[in-house]
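Why ATP synthase gamma chain? Reviewers of the renewal asked for a concrete example.
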Amino acid sequence: MPSMRQIRGRIRTAKNIQQITKAMKMVAAARLKRAQDRVVAARPYANKMKEVMGSLSKAGAGNITHPLLEVRAPEKVGIVVISADRGLCGSYSTNLLKKVQEVLRTGGVEGGAVTPETTKLLLAGRKAQTYFRRRPYAIVGEFTLNMTNPSFAEAQEIAKQARDLYTSGEVDVIYLVYTKFLSALVQKPMAVQMLPMVAEDDIEASGTNEDYIFEPDAETLFGNMLPRSVDTLVYQALIESVASEHGARMTAMSSATDNAGKMIAGLTLAANRARQAGITKELAEIVGGADALKG
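Here is what the prediction returned.
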């Protein structure tokens, strides 16, 4: 059985950890509120951009040629991964990396799973960078992000390198893997096809068959809107991932704080029992000594 000194040392350590996790929980909660506001504000624009591009591409699909719309046999795959920048956020990073591995197993390449020789990675966030540096995949881009307040310029930098990979023919399809923010308790890893751009199923199912008149011409219009659409997609994924990371960290630190409290309660009980055992032992020794003197 541990001594009183050892138990008290463990209690002090648990209290110190509890203070740290509680502070991290409060910081994550404050950052989550700002990140959630950015997600809510950006979603309508991103959804409308996706809807407009889907409708326009279906309306002018027969007459428009653009490098970002070119469909090729998927022999080489590019994957853009937006991961966490730090740890202490529960299973957030593990779930995201599992999603990346799922894409690597079923990346649409003819013949099944992709190979390291046919894969190029663009990695944003230290967790993905650390993970894939130890694996035989070609990392063609690494990005350090501002996880407190990500900017549209950061998303444009990632999107530009992804577009260059695709238009140069180095890859035939590009997937974007990120974590969609649903709530502070629920974050869902997502994998979407980034390039070539395709019309959404819900647009196709809506039955809109309007005859569009393009002004300026369709080639010019799509030439300006398609890169912007890719930038918007990456930016939306970026702010969703940041909000998800803060939500996961807040939840993990809340659980850690509660667990530290339970540990402190258990150690305090053990300390009380040890103290009572010590008192009982001393009383027994005193009584034994008194009986010995009487005898």
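The radius of gyration is 28 Å. This is the kind of structural detail the renewal will allow us to pursue systematically.
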